[in-house]
Design goal:
The protein is mainly α and 310 residues long. Helices cover 72% and strands 0% of the residues.
Length: 310
């Protein structure tokens, strides 16, 4: 990868990591389900009018929209609103790599090797350590909702692989149109119209800036740049940069929100990042190019050149 492309990959990881701090700020202005609905509404409009028609079947757009937009982000925002810390959420959410590998085995028949199984075990051990830490220092319900959000992310990853969108930005923008109405309906049902109206009436520059960040910067720019990199480089070269997300997430949460990181949480971070690395990066080494043997008449080839061509 060129230095500029490496910098872009690191920038996307930073944007996604800091996003958890921005979500924490946004939850002070909006109920979680309404906040998530506004995120996708602003991400979809007006971008949907500029990206062209969908390039995959609608069943994949709807499936990913429900799994990723409604379930994953609805649960993540709700979990954080119930007290799951921003830094810990950025870390725990990375266990989606384990669930992705599990669902890929169940739905796609992709058998994980021994190294990947070891990575899954190490990452789950990290989740266990984080659960112990959170259970003794904070509300466990929010933590469990973030883990469930990671499960839903794994489902959406497998659906995305099945869809195989040729244009990730086009796909993400159209996916963003799906969760808006379901999330608004859930917000009205569970959070109440009075609470939603109060949040919208009290919209200020901070609230508007938060929505712009999570919609245009995190979603449109982040996924667009990530897809651009994946089209130009092997996934094995781009994927490792996602491991920087919890680094930026925990660092920015400590810097801007004053979140402390206990020794147990450092242990959980080491286990989770290491396990996800093993789960995600196994087999990243490029396979050697096949050797093509060309049989030629030995009477026409000098003996010093041999009789085969690599």
């Amino acid at each position: 990868m060129r230095p500029a492309h490496i910098a872009l990959a690191a920038l996307v990881a930073a944007v996604w990591g800091v996003n958890f701090v921005v979500i924490e700020i946004g939850l002070d202005h909006f109920p979680p389900l309404l906040f998530s609905a506004l995120r996708f509404l602003v991400a979809a409009l007006p971008a949907v009018f500029f990206v062209g028609r969908p390039k995959v079947a609608w069943k994949w757009i709807v499936g990913v929209g429900l799994a990723l937009g409604v379930a994953k982000f609805g649960l993540l925002f709700t979990g954080m609103s119930l007290g799951a810390p921003a830094g810990l959420s950025s870390l725990v959410l990375q266990v989606q790599a384990v669930f992705t590998a599990l669902f890929a085995f169940l739905a796609l028949g992709e058998r994980p090797g021994r190294v990947k199984l070891l990575g899954m075990g190490v990452a789950l051990a990290g989740i266990g350590v984080a659960a112990v830490d959170e259970g003794t220092s904070g509300p466990l319900t929010g933590f469990l909702l973030v883990i469930t959000a990671a499960v839903c992310w794994g489902v959406s990853n497998v659906l995305t692989r099945k869809a195989a969108p040729p244009d990730p930005l086009n796909f993400m923008v159209w996916v963003s149109t799906v969760p808006v109405l379901p999330l608004l309906a859930l917000s009205l049902l569970l959070e109440g119209p009075d609470r939603d109206l109060a949040a919208l009436r009290g919209l200020d520059w901070t609230g508007a800036g938060v929505i712009v960040y999570v919609a245009w910067i995190t979603t449109v720019f982040g996924f667009g740049a990530w897809g651009w990199l994946l089209r130009r480089h092997p996934a094995s070269s781009v994927a490792p940069f996602s491991l920087l997300v919890p680094v930026f997430g925990m660092s920015s949460a400590a810097l801007f929100l004053g979140e402390s990181v206990s020794p147990l949480r450092w242990c959980a971070a080491a286990l989770l990042v290491g396990g996800v690395a093993l789960t995600s990066l196994q087999g990243c080494k490029a396979a050697p190019e096949p050797t093509v043997r060309v049989l030629v008449p030995t009477t026409n080839v000098p003996t010093t050149h041999g009789g085969s061509t690599p």
